[in-house]
# Entry
Amino acid sequence: MKPKSTIEQYADIVVIGFGAAGACSAITAHDAGVEATILEKQPENKHYSNSRMSGGGFHSPSPDGDFESIKSYAKAMFSGENLPHKLEGEQPEFSDGLAHAWATYAPQNEAFMQGLDPQFKTFRSMGAAFADFPGADRAKYACLRSTYGTEYDIGSNDNTKDAAKALKESGEAFHACLLTGVQSRKIPVYYETVAESLCVNDDGVVTGVVAVRNGERITYHARRAVIITSGGFEYNVRMRKAFLDGPGKEGWAFYGSPANTGDGIRMALKIGAALAKVGSIAGRVICAIPERRHGLKIGLNTSSVGKPNEIVVDNLGQRYAAERRITKDPSRYIFYKEALQFDTVTLTYPRIPSWMIFDSTLMNGGALVSAAAAAYNDIDWDKGNQNALRNGWILQGATIAELAAKIRAHPENRERMDVSALEQQVAKWNRYCDAGNDPDFNAEPDTMGVVRKPPFFAIPLYPGGPNTKGGLRSNARREVLDWDDKPIPRLYAAGEINSAFQFVYQGGGNLAECIVFGRVAGANAAAETPLA
# Structure
């Protein structure tokens, strides 16, 4: 059914998407004295952005850190071109400007957030994850975690989605702070409003957005600019097949917002926008369940990987890395590249899926996945993991051989599991644990624990994670560019749709760049001269 009428509304800045980047863009534009409007496709009572579903960590180097050191560290993460071993920079045309903006704004991140809501609190979780990068020693780098509580457990698996603001933690606290900033400024947010296309005049200037709300087509005219902050394409089947390495539909899983369907990328491509590093993601290997969103598996943050009493093997039953690397910063955000290994002899992906093999000790030790990730997706994964077992999301065997046979029968293993190989691998791992040393992959001693207590269990793991990071090619001003690297007039973007982290990634980077480059986009958009 087509929308039945056309309505026209006006604002200086129209922001597409209400995540962290959208909120920071709109707040910055508002504070510059211009009128901003936010369009959000999700309903207000189920508004779960990737920012809200995140762990709530963000980079905020000390304001006392050395400016050039912060800039050098950021440039290494963004592009890698200032590393002696790097063949070429990932985005050399813009990396210096991006790093300069980072060194300027990132040390203000904590103060910016607390300025939105003085009740918002932070706790330091780590410093520079890449200790050998240029500038790491003098940047006074810091990653902070978000909370409204008086105490905070960094390893907490609790879900505070429905808690009062004073009890919110992690991404819930981060989102609540941004929401406070938006609401206190009375910035209009139009929920259940789906942006369809960008308005462009005869001179190629972006002048607004056409959207649909309540069955009506609405044109939101932008006097100054449009800012796209609609996130990535985790739940767009066609884009995943086009942009992701390997089997894009069945071989990946994400635990971010199902609302991230690449809308902003699609709209910008139609008016000539270029793409950059569109297949990059922040990811590792995570479990997925057969239930679907937009025809795709639902992923869950599998934080139990890398703990004692489990190992991760490929489809043939062989370990291929120290398990803690899968969940430890910074390797966890680039580990998916190892899971994408392609066997050029058998023409298969032996690590898609991989398999988490564990015993009753871990099974009985608490939820194997993030409670928050499950709750946002309406997945009933209880703390004892029994619902997952009953639903067949977890396989069980009385012996390792029986478990291997069940894995072999799993449709996505395609009868590749070698029963004796898995038995031998588990036995070898147990010997390593007894000796306190892993000569194969140098697992950290405190992560080693035998897989010995029956019954035994397995979960399939797929490349994936919270979000994609590639998309629209944009300069340091966050102007969206065409294929000749010319800015599309009055079109900006920020957040996961054009992430600055195109070489490597440190946890908390996505939220930090939403603050930094949301502010950059908001300030530059607000500075545009109003259209006549």
In short: The longest strand covers residues 216-228. The domain at 6-231+469-526 is CATH 3.50.50.60 (FAD/NAD(P)-binding domain).
